[in-house]
Amino acid sequence: MYGMIHKSVRDMVQKEFGEESWNEIAASAGVDEAHLLSMEAYDDEIVYNLVDSASKLLGLSSAEILETFGQHFVLTTLNAQYKQLLLGYGKTCFELLDNINYLHSSIKYTFTGYLPPVFSLEYVNDFEIDLVYESSRVGLTPFVRGLLNGLAILYMETLVISEEEHITVESGEKTRFRVCRES
Q1: Does 144 share its domain with 89?
Q2: How many domains does the chain have?
Q3: For position 111, which CATH number holds?
Q4: Of 7, 11, 20, 64, which one is least surrounded by beta carbons within 10 A?
């Protein structure tokens, strides 16, 4: 994952739990953030270690940490630096989600070794979609749930994830979300 993810995790912990909590989490995870560059790729284990340390030190589950982080990432990092790019791929959450793979394709040259997840979207009706998330990484479904919650806030829409189904795959993870928006 990229340094911008690590820096966003730091920002979330500092805002939600304080500087001292961040220092303890970073030390426990063995992360020296001074050497993390936003646009540089790093081993995924750094984020997993940060989540594990945060979970232990804050008394929250890894899923709670990841979901909170997903929402935070949209509302702070993406909103501050990439809002216009997001809006260019969709004027609503559903439009953005329908175009998210194109967005990932357009930025793949910005990030060396970029391995984005793949999303597929199927409209159930005008207010309901099945969104399938597939990634080579394992354990990030709660992060995606948080991203969806953050996108709803960013787009000033009400989205409800009414079901979540984990689909067995040989490697990585695959999850189907039923997402409803209020009319």
Answers
A1: yes
A2: 2
A3: 3.90.1520.10
A4: 20
Report the DSSP beta bridge partners of residue 130.
122, 178
- Residue 7's domain comprises 3-60
> What rounded mean pLDDT belongs to the chain?
88
Q: Final residue of a domain: which of 12, 34, 60?
A: 60
Helix/strand/coil (H/E/C) assignment for every residue in the chain: CEHHHHHHHHHHHHHHHCHHHHHHHHHHHCCCHHHCCCCCECCCHHHHHHHHHHHHHHCCCHHHHHHHHHHHHHHHHHHHHHHHHHHHCCCCHHHHHHHHHHHHHHHCCCCCCCCCCEEEEEEEECCEEEEEEEECCCCCHHHHHHHHHHHHHHCCCCEEEEEEEEECCCCCEEEEEEEEECC
Check whether residue 56 and residue 70 sit in a common domain: no
pLDDT at 183: 67
- pLDDT tens figures, 27-43: 998 887 665 555 566 77
DSSP lists the bridge partners of residue 161 as 179
Contact by Cβ (8 Å): 86, 103 = yes
